[in-house]
Known about the structure:
alpha/beta; TIM Barrel; 10-stranded mixed sheet; 12 strands; globular; binds ligand PBG
Amino acid sequence: MTRRPRRNRKNQTIRNWTQESFLRPQNLIAPLFLLDAEKEEVAIDSLPGCFRHGLSNTLKNIEEHLALGVNSFVLFPVVPENKKDKTGSYSYNPDNFYLKQAAAIKERFPEVVLMSDVALDPYSTDGHDGIVQDGEILNDETLPVLNKMAVAQAQAGFDIIGPSDMMDGRIGTIREALDEANFTNASIMSYCAKYASAFYGPFRDALDSAPKAGDKKTYQMDWSNRREALIEGELDTQEGADFLMVKPALAYLDVIADLKANFEVPIAAYNVSGEYAMLHAAAEKGWLDLEKTMVESLGAIHRAGASIILTYFAKKYARWFKENH
Ligand code: PBG
């Protein structure tokens, strides 16, 4: 045998030389759930270790992330039921606590990067990402609300606008609306290939945002499909997306690799709530090692081609990284 691949695995130093991918905490985005309350903290049963936080706890939490090298956050609002309506009008109301808390975070920590969520579901009495009429989820009619929401978010100081509804024409019209309002510097991360997935369950518990009727299959992608993601990628890049995201991540590594191979913009992946919850559940039973499976999962998502990973593990990964490097 002239070729023995094991020679390149013979000790830790050689293994370090040959390591092909390396995920740093700087490449992680931590999702945070915001509550319209001071100091409040509400645990999320299906997302162990994650909380819905009022502003002061959110600031504390951000500080802990910063100390570990994570400085990017995607914010999601827990909207009180009495603020919801058919058209999600609270989303661009200047009194919206989500916008005010984002501004407060930027004021306290100007160095953080904040990403928003642009979709109707947290604000809608129907729990759908678009306006519902006679059981149909409307595409074009939802656009003006999304435009107003995106501009209000840029105004509040969000660095990255995150349209997450998977309907058509979002990136182009939002880009135009942002530019018209002089927010040419606000980036757009498109939820480019977001699948109608059963792995979002815990997130919908966290926000109380599950659809009241039906499912999201007329707008989110069918998980059987791979090539369709390239159509989405082409449209979104043409429309001006700065980043393309794949969601969920672990069951969609092929899609991450495809987008990486076909588009020049950086690729992000969302390691979603169900992916986080399942490792925790197995670890709780003593069936898996949480830390090791976390490191391997995030590393695999990175290896597949995602340079940016949205994950509830951000703080835990960063702590592991600090202890081991
Ligand atoms: C909704 C949205 C969802 C997630 C992020 N934004 C849920 C959905 O599409 O129903 C899920 C994130 C997760 O599961 O961690 N716009």
